[in-house]
Amino acid sequence: MNLAALDMNLLVVFDALMEERNVTRAGRRVGLTQPAVSNALSRLRLLLKDQLFIRTPAGMQPTARALEIAGPVQQALAQIKDALEPSWFDPATAELSFALAAGDYIGSTLLPPLTELLRDRAPGVRLRVLPANTLDLMHFLDNGECDMAIGFFDTIPERLDAMPLWAESVSLVARWDHPLASGPMSLERLAEAPHILISQTGQEDDGSSDGYLLSHGLRRQVMTRSHLALRRSLEERGLRLRVALTVPYYSAVLPIVMQSDLVTLLPHRVALSLHRLAGVAVRDLPCPLEAVQIQGLWHRQVTARASHTWLRRLVAEAAQRMTGQTLSPGRLAS
């Protein structure tokens, strides 16, 4: 093929159509009208001598040829973008947007110091937080719609890079005058209390899961592993964990705990925040549970990008600030 006859914008349209499978949405993504996208597709069909996309009730379905070239086209566009990216980055004058995928736990702990650092050092840089619990993270990282995902991860595909940010322990949270707010803590007492389980999928575990969801090679935590570990500790004693309520968000827990006899296990930093905010009781557990490592993930194709290198350093600094301000675990009551 004569590359001089190839309009690179046609490949940009092709990549957008592969992601969106819809002409209107693809046009919105690349800043073109629907007729302009259709015209670009017609030109690309003539050039490659293939239909590429077939209109169906379910959207624009790619042909075998389109699926064959989709990966190389996406990689080529990413390499061109990196080649044209400045080798330096000045946060004080930069005007761009970063997208982070994070759940509400990360939002309540890391975002405050990260936002403060951004305001002080990069006033023109905007930050968008994508809901990690509802996204196909690998899809968003692969196509560049997400610059970094932050959370609890296990198996990580080779095409991603990762950095550890901090380790998080767990604590029991209960109403300030709950029976478990005082007195000796034991597994027997924990088994008597009804629990709130936090699961991003909204599903209660049946004991066969390890609390992770595998998607496109990436295993991420979708259920509070501490509850699963507590369940096993109780079963070893012939006891049972009483799950009375399952919710998908940490933010849903506080009003329920404050107005009921339900208790829950929360990341220690979240538990401390709720104690300061509402005076809930925070207790250490009678059985040791392994701390969970929070990590930042990003696609290797952006590792060398100057702006992304700056973003990673800023996230790491925000994590350091946040952990340095955290109190030691222990029993806190109002």
Explain how this protein is built.
- The chain has 334 residues and is of the alpha/beta class.
- It folds into three domains: 82 residues, Orthogonal Bundle (Arc Repressor Mutant, subunit A), CATH 1.10.10; 87 residues, Periplasmic binding protein-like II (D-Maltodextrin-Binding Protein, domain 2); 121 residues, Periplasmic binding protein-like II (D-Maltodextrin-Binding Protein, domain 2, 3-Layer(aba) Sandwich).
- Helix content is 40%, strand content 22%.
- The chain has a five-stranded mixed sheet.
- Helix 1 crosses helix 2, helix 1 crosses helix 3 and helix 2 crosses helix 3.
- The C terminus is likely disordered.
Biggest β-sheet strands, sense, barrel: 5 strands, mixed
Mean pLDDT score = 85
Give the fraction of residues assigned to helices: 40-55%
Structural class of the helices, strands and pairings? alpha/beta
Structurally, how many domains make up the residues? 3
Oligomer: single chain
Number of helices: 12
* The top level CATH class name of the largest domain: Alpha Beta
- Compressed to H and E, one letter per element, the order equals HHHEEHEHHEHEEEHEEEHEHEHEEH
- Give the strand line-up of the largest sheet: 4-3-5-14-6
Q: Mind telling me which CATH architecture of the largest domain this is?
A: 3-Layer(aba) Sandwich
Low-confidence spans: 206-212, 325-334
Distance between the termini: 74 Å
CATH topology of the largest domain: D-Maltodextrin-Binding Protein, domain 2
Number of strands: 14
